[in-house]
Amino acid sequence: MEKSLGKVRPKKSLGQHFLHDQNTARRIVESLTTPENDTTPVLEIGPGMGVLTQYMVTNNKLELKVVEIDRDSVKYLHSHYPSLSANIIEGDFLEMDLQRVFGAPFSIIGNFPYNISSQIFFKVLEHRDQVNQVVCMLQKEVAERIAEKEGSKTYGILSVLLQAYYNIQYLFKVPPGAFTPPPKVMSAVIRLERNATAKLACDEKLFVKVVKQGFNNRRKTLRNALKPLDLSADIAALEIMDKRAEQLSVEQFVHLTQLIEKGRGGAGTGI
Fold first, then answer.
1. Which partner for 34 in 13, 40, 135, 174 could form a disulfide, CB atoms 3.0-4.6 Å apart?
2. How many Cβ atoms are within 10 Å of 18's Cβ, its own excluded?
């Protein structure tokens, strides 16, 4: 069942580090949560030479599609996985219309290129009603940041925005030697599962703006960090404004956004 690495050469321009450790590949695929009596639509991002694909393509509980930007890898996939050919999409995930991929909510899996992992997550957020699960490997520091809770120096914008809509689990670490070529950093695997929050109890665009503004000036208190939002004197005087962004939970950011909304007469703003 296992495939050889073949002749596709990793391209630095695409941030490619091909996973070759089969045990790690199996663990990543096994981390997908699937219902017992239903088929799970899955989109794999950047399959490369199919180190994860090989463990999904024969699983009849998965409806698998893959998206790959590298033409050499696309040729390899067509050659080695002919049964998947109709579901191999050549293109850039960041440019895809995710509403057209499946007719129902779907899961995402992949070894994300380090240089675009944040962009992938922001696209997931935009399509959170379509994407109900993400299992991915990425740079360990980014994985920790996404899974981290308030009070940590690594807690940041992605932590808050993703945790607002997803339950996040940090699963396991992967050493550089599991890849060809080995990256200079450790990697880690995380799982995101959509939570029950259909919509935040505040203006969601204003929420994003508050979170980004707070963390873009994370050393400042919120009173100073949020000055560009033209807060009223009453809001600026609140005790919560003595805190820094990294000290606020998702719920506290929602509450702060509600307060700012009220201070503006209930009118939120766009991003």
1. 40
2. 18
